[in-house]
Structure formats: structure tokens, C-alpha cells
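In response to a reviewer's request, we include the raw inputs and outputs for one of the modeled complexes. The two entities were modeled together in a single run.
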Amino acid sequence: MVGNPNVGKTSLLNALTGGDFSVGNFPGVTVEKKEGKGLIDGKAVTFVDLPGIYSFEAENLDEKVARDYLEKEKPDLILNVVNALNLERNLYLTLQLTKFCIPMVIALNMIDEAEKERIRIDAKKLSEIIGVPVVKTSAVKGVGIEELKREILRGGSVPKVFSGDLQDIIRMAEKIAREIKVVEELEKPEIDEVLDEVFMDTHLGIPIFLSFMWMMFMFTYSVAQPLNDLLSFCFDTLASYIASFDGWFFSLLGDGVVAGVGSVLSFVPNIAFLFLFLSLLELSGYMPRAVFLVDGFMFRFGLNGRSVIPLIMGFGCNVPAILATRSIEDRKVRIATALINPFMSCSARLPIYVLFAGIFFPRTGSVVIMSMYVIGVLIALISALILRKTLLKGESEFIIELPPYMLPNFKELWLMTWSRTKHFIQKAGTVILAMSVVVWYITTYPGGGIEESYAAMLGKAIQPLFSPMGWSWELVLALISGFVAKEVVVATIGVLNIDIPSVMAPHQAFAYMLFTLLYMPCIATIAVIRAEIGTKWTVFAVLFSFSVAYAMALIATGVGMWL
Amino acid sequence: MVVALIFTAYFSLLTLLETLSALNLFGFEGGMLMNAFVLGTITATFLKGLVVKKDSYQLVASLIAVAFSALAILVYLASGIFSYGILGFVAVPYAVRESRNKK
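The model returned the following C-alpha cells for the whole complex.
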């Protein structure tokens, strides 16, 4: 399946496979690959959804992946998905596809939207010009899907080859579009005009966007919280019950596997609610407008509008936030966004701030906590600027199409939410399982309580590194345990029964909070960074964030002592 | 425009109440500044519609108010946290009527 971005390829894949598709990466690169099997008249057909591209002219990663796939894998058929609302630009890619001499079928998708706008397309004439079957479809409404399936089984036809330079192809695409399209009325639907006038308003656009983002937070955390609490309770009860039996195996299963994996799975409601809201924003057509609105501001830091969603999502959880960087087409911007994402203070860090602010800053607690969020954002933006001026230098290409507003249908919303949530469970769950076993081992052995454990030995061995900040080995051990999940820092402080006010001063506490904000991402985030942008950048992310955290904590301690 | 004027005044009041309760002033408590921000944005959108005399601002503001109200009700049911945004449900009839009038 080949087509421009936002032409409804994923919706068509849903319709053709009944939603049975997996999301992975193309070999050796981190470009998303959706692959699914559909059964047509008893025959299994494998569909591969290539990344959305505008042409084969530019040298970006998505176009390279698509070209390599067509040249090396030699698929049986190209299903070229064309947006009926924007024929000229879509046909430009279609004409370029003819050069591969692979049998092709064209799906004129979003035909219902085109008809709403009084655009009539002569599919038969287009079929004669290109030399391949053309089917009018609306993936969202299920229109033309059966006919498309029949054409797929017939195997399509090898198209006539259109060659020439860039300008020739553009002229040919425009000429064909003029020949096959009749526009009875060019007016935009009234509701689209109404919504765009307000959502893209110079003064109100950004506040409305921020309001939606806040609603997303409310939905993700407050509304999903009871489900989260229920799952937490179930896993805690199950873990305690299993661990109450004698023997190392039950301890491993209860305190290690169930407690560790359960701590991640209990976040699934939050993650699912977050993805549900994001899918709603995407499918409704609002998201591209939001991206366009904030693009100017993000550009100053070497990023683009698409970076803002992953960064905002980072306040919830860095794992899905880094997965959301997949929507960024420019690879360097994508890497920069993924690398700075852990600086956005995720919800798991909040209990740490609440604990320390409550003890040391009872009057100004909320201001101190708010300052953590602000510092995180500032450091993320400054880091992005530095990265884009040095290691990730380059111009950012940014093309965005503003699709019409649509009321998403429930099935599509569900499929989009589920495929993303499933990805989170698979990716984070497997890593957490392994790490839970490791943490269980180092906190349980060689025996005699946590203070005699390998974890304690590790804390004592590493403590000298933090002596300039004056933190005890117990506090250092809590930081190490936070490597698994940031909430564990507070849990470890509780298990070790540390009397915090007696072991540190307020400025040291502030430095400790800063360090927990900035130091290396948790293991699930590291696993996702590795999966998304590779091992080299993961090592860089860990070292970079640790260096920044150490420097900031040192500065905070120094300034605190001086004051 | 009378509707816009009434809604501007009504949502200004809700914004004020939410702000006072977020800052724990005059006996109000339990509000959140970000909720006040959303209510302020809705007010500003109604106000702009009033100033530029365009229905589109009223329609979008009422749609946002309805969405926020629905979410605030869900939050209240899930966690017991009250927001004056709940009272934005009064915009439902206007939002429904105006949405139907548009193509």
C-alpha cells in the first residue's frame, strides 16, 4: 500500500484485514511498518502499509524505505491509495510509481468526502490513462471495499510508464487531474470554515490547543485513575499472596514478576485513555491544525510542530510519548525529540516531588513542584537547540496537509487505540519482566535484609560519586532503584525507613529532586528509545541525561550552600 | 448576539469562581488553575464572537464548553473532584441547534 500521508491507508488496511495487523519496524530502520493478513474469497493476502510519502524525489528515510521495499521485495501488487480530495498532488506520486513496472490498482479513497464537496471523478477515464483498475472507496464508511478486494485478487495491471523530469511529472499530474475531475462547487463545507476560523485564530488558537491538552490530562489521569487503582490493588494483592508462600520461587514470582510487571500493567488504563484521546484528535482532523499552530515556536529550538505532542505526552509517561515521535517525518528532529523527552517530568516523578516538597518546603511546596516542571521543559528545549546545532544539524522539512474535519467512527477509534496500547504492553512489559527479576535478585540476595543485599553494596559503592551533594548511600540506592521505575524511589525510601530531614538540608533536597527529574530515564523508556532510535542514541541519552542531572544537582547544591 | 452576551457573562462568572476556589480565597476551595484557564478560554472565545459579531466563535466556544463539561462530570464521578466547568452543560442546547444549522 503506497500513498501520501493522511490519505486513509491505515483505515483501508483496517477495512481489508478486519483490523488484524501488527505494527513493527522495517528491517534496520525505525520507520513504522504495518503488516496484516486479509482473507479474500478464501485466499490469504498479505498487506504491507508503506510509510506515507509525497514523492521519490527527496532523500528522507520514509521515501528511501518505500523505494527499497518496491525495488528489493518486488511485491505482487501496488495498491496506490489516492486522496480523492487532492488529486493533483496524489497523482504526482502515482505517476512516479509507474516507473517500477509493478502491477497496480488505484484506490480513490475518501470518495464520500469528495462527493460532499461536489467533486466528481471519472474513475474509468483515469483507469484508461494510467492503464490500471481504479476503484472508488471510502475506507471509513466501507464503500467500495468488496470491489477493491475483487480487483486485488485479479492482480491489477502493469501501468503505462510516465517518465520525465520533476516539472514534466507535475504538469502531467495536473493535466490528468483536470481531465478526470469536475468540481461543481469549490466551497468548503460551512462547518469546516467555522471550525478553522476559530481553531486557527491568531489569539485564541494556542489557548484552545492548551485547553484541549489539559482535557487530555484530565481524561488520562483523573478519569482513568479508578481503573488504575483497581489494577494496582489486584496486582499488589496477588503479589503479596504469592510471596506469602515459602521458598525462593514464590518470592521471585510474587515480589519479582507479579509486583514488577503488575506495576507497569496497572498503567495500561492511563495509556489506553491517552491514546484514545489522541486518536480522537487525529481522526477528527484537529491534530494537524495544532501541529501547524505551534510550529513557529518549536522551530526556534530546531524542532517542528510535530514535536509538541510527544513532548506534552511526556508529562504523562515517556514511553508512549517516545512512541508518538513516529509521527515526525524528519529523522533528525525525531531523534532530538526522543532524546529530550525524558526531561519532561512524567507522572511517576510526582510522588518524589510531593514527598520532598512536603517535608522541606511546606509553604511553597506547589511552587517548588511547578518549578520542576518548568525546569524540565527549559532544559528539554535548550538541549534540543544544542543537539540541532551540533550532532543533529540540518534543515527540517515540514509539510503538513490539513484534512477535512470528520466525526471519527467508533470502530476506527477502537482499532487505532488498541493497536497502540498493545504495542506499549508488548514493548514495556517484556523489558520490565526481565528487569523485575534482576531487581528482585539484587535486593533479596545474598540474604539478611535489604541493607545487606547486593543492591545496598551497590549503593555504598556508588555513593562517593554523590558525596559533593552530600547524599547518603540509602538515598543513592533509592536513585538506583528508580532506574526501574521512578515511583520506586519513594518505595525504596519507605522500605529503608530513611529519616529524610535528619540526613539532608532543604537545598540538598531540592538538588535531589532536580536530579530525579533529569537523571537517566527509567528502564522502560530506555527500551523504547533503543527500539525507536537505536542503541547508539540510547547510550547517548543515558550519558547525556546523567551528565545534565549531575551538573544541575551540583549547581543547586553549590548555590544552596552559598545562599 | 444576546446569546453571546449571556454566555460571556455566565462563563466569566464560572472562571472567577474556579479561580477563587483554586486560590482558596473567600471561602472557596478545591478548584484548579488549569480548569480556570479552560473556562477563561471559553469566555474569551464567546467575547471575541461578540466583538467581531460572528456566530462561528459562539458555536466553537459552546462545543468546547460542552466537551469540558462532559469531562468534568466524568472526573467528578471518577475522583470526586468538583469543577465549575460542570456547569458548562447549559451550552448543550445552543451547541446542538447551531451544529445542525451548519452543513
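As requested, we also summarize the result in words. The radius of gyration of chain A is 27 Å. The mean pLDDT of chain A is 84.
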